[in-house]
Design brief:
5-stranded antiparallel beta sheet, single chain, mainly beta, 6-stranded mixed beta sheet
Length: about 270
């Protein structure tokens, strides 16, 4: 019973840290779906940074998935700025060497959107930050392949900020963040952070086929000032839903260390 209480406390602390980082996450406040026969309007000042074809058989929807970014953010500049925290420090009056507007001066937030087979935009997420990446499908243990959206929440300082990755599904032309269920049955979006004190990776499924997700993070113990707890979290899919499995111990883990052995995770 004491161990279960500690695990619950650790999970709450982890979610609190993610909540502070995410704030009012734009991913969680997508616009209402377009009415039948209508589509969302195109975006101004944005370009398609990544586009992935969607098929009915593979994704349950025929069309495309697009990541839109500010037109000033070239692919090379996106790579240069990733995980540096620099875009948030942009100054709209800052000039580049040739006298033009600095490419990273207050760039518009990125957008993720779905088109149908006719090219109409059927759903759209307005993200919180300008830097984002869309990774190819990865099936893991689910019956449908997942897309992996990473949004860069990096800042110039701080142990609890960095890129946060959310697995995405397409259902009926709508974007859906994959949810995970905790021990109490509560469902929350599955978000994975890489920061000074948090990291994650894929691993062979402990049971069945496919892959699990291993997530390690350090947080200060709310009941013991100045003391820290490391949480080892395994995320598994049982064919119906994702679930969390936690183990905790006193100490500090940081990302400049080797990623923990798989045996450390429950």
């Amino acid at each position: 019973m004491q161990r279960e209480a500690g695990q619950t406390q650790g999970l709450r602390l982890h979610l609190l840290i993610l909540g502070l980082v995410l704030g009012a996450c734009g991913e969680c406040h997508a616009p209402a779906p377009p009415s039948e026969g209508s589509a969302l309007p195109p975006l101004v000042g944005m370009r398609v940074a990544q586009s992935m074809r969607l098929t009915q058989g593979e994704d349950g929807w025929a069309g495309s998935l697009e990541l839109m970014v500010d037109t000033r953010l070239t692919d090379a500049l996106r790579d240069e700025l990733w995980a540096t925290g620099r875009p948030d420090d942009g100054n709209p009056d800052q000039s580049s060497a040739d006298g033009g507007l600095s490419p990273w001066a207050n760039p518009r937030p990125a957008v993720l959107q779905v088109r149908d087979a006719q090219g109409a935009i059927r759903d759209r997420w307005n993200l919180e930050h300008s830097l984002a990446r869309l990774e190819p499908r990865r099936r893991l243990s689910s019956s449908r392949a997942l897309f992996w959206l990473s949004v860069d929440y990096s800042a110039l300082a701080g142990a609890y900020n960095g890129p946060i990755t959310t697995p995405i599904e397409i259902e009926g032309g709508r974007l859906h963040a994959v949810e995970v269920v905790n021990e109490q049955g509560a469902r929350t979006p599955l978000r994975l952070m890489r920061s000074l004190r948090s990291d994650w990776r894929f691993a062979p499924a402990r049971t069945g086929t496919g892959e699990d997700i291993l997530h390690v993070f350090t947080a200060e113990d709310p009941k013991r000032a100045g003391e820290f707890v490391v949480t080892y979290e395994r995320l598994t899919f049982d064919g119906r839903r994702w679930a969390r499995h936690l183990r905790q111990e006193d100490g500090v883990w940081e990302s400049d260390e080797e990623f923990p052995s798989e045996d450390e995770f429950p």
